[in-house]
Amino acid sequence: MASPDDIRRLALALPEAVEADHHGMPSFRVSGKIFCTIHVQHPRMMVKLDVEDQRNLAEAHPGVIEAVPGYWGRGGATFVAYERADSALIEMLLRMAYANVTAARSKRRRL
What integer is the mean pLDDT of 62-67? Predict the structure, then answer.
């Protein structure tokens, strides 16, 4: 079972990751782009995944991982019930979200 403190520690261990407020929630960013938020009113976090990864992980972890409803979910925004996930899963999801955001940044630079 992971906690917000675990998420914070793991997210900030990633290169150049910083914490900033996002509508009253802690968010974790790299180069100004959010890769994770921690929801304070609900025990869940959001990570920005590749859509295919999102689908596969939601199928593999029902009740723990699910697409954010609507527009944002179709773009890879993914809810994670962190109280039902172990630290290894949280770390993997954070690394995937971080890589997804940094890859998108690199792609934009090449265009």
Answer: 97
CB atoms within 10 A of CB 63: 8
pTM of the full predicted structure?
Answer: 0.91
User: Which position has the token pair 């990751």?
Assistant: 17
Q: Find the helix or strand (DSSP H, E) in which 98 lies.
A: helix 87-110
Q: How far apart are CA 79 and CA 38, in angstroms?
A: 10
Burial class (CB in 10 A: 0-12, 13-18, 19+), 66: middle
Q: How far apart are CA 104 and CA 109, in angstroms?
A: 9
Crossing angle for the helix pair 51-60 and 87-110, to the nearest 10 degrees: 170
Yes or no: say if 93 and 11 are a contact pair by the CB < 8 Å rule: no
Q: What is the pLDDT of residue 110?
A: 46
Beta-bridged to residue 79, according to DSSP, are 46, 66
Whether the CA torsion 3, 61, 32, 38 is positive or negative: it is negative
